[in-house]
Amino acid sequence: MPDNSPEPSKRPPLKERLRLPHVSGFWTVLWLLACFVLTGILLPLVLKLQPWIEFEIVVGIWWLLWSMILTKLLYKGEHIADDHRLKKPKDWFGLDGSSGSNWDGCAGGADFEGCAIVLGLIAALALVWLLIELAIPIVFFML
Q1: Cβ-based neighbours of 119, under 8 Å, separated by 6 or more
Q2: In whole angstroms, what is the distance from residue 13 CA to residue 27 CA?
Q3: What is the pLDDT of residues 103-129, one digit of tens each?
Q4: CA 123 vs CA 32, 59, 117, 132: distances in Å
Q5: I need a labelling partner for 34 at 20 to 30 A (CA). Which of 77, 91, 98, 106 fits?
């Protein structure tokens, strides 16, 4: 009867098999903020010094906390996972081509937001020109 178990030298050590692949970025930030809030609230209650001295001590401890925690993560080789996932942008005006229209935007394939910005700038320049060339001289003439 052949032995189908893998050789011990090819198996990763137990520590690597049980280790989580990534540290959650969200939870890392949450725990750091919790530590900051606790030190910011509890230290002034315990020390009872002048407020500016307490403030300096709290900020110093904050620097010490985040540098120690992030140094530990870096030293251990932990990977902080990117918890945020980008979603597909919403197609507000049905311009993605799936609606059946062949309209590609205003300048041969440009997106709608870019066209809206350009058209808005042109309209703003036209308004400024009207204000300078027509409205202000008419108001001065009336005065």
Answers
A1: 106
A2: 27
A3: 444 545 556 777 888 899 999 999 988
A4: 48, 50, 10, 14
A5: 77
Tell me the C-alpha distance between 92 and 94, whole Å.
6
Phi, psi dihedrals of residue 101, rounded to the nearest 5°: -85, 150
Amino acid making up residue 35: C
User: Does the pTM exceed 0.85?
Assistant: no
Residues 6+ apart with CB under 8 A from 17: 11
Rounded CA-CA distance 58/50 in Å is 12
| Residue 78: closest CA among 30, 11, 27, 24 | 24
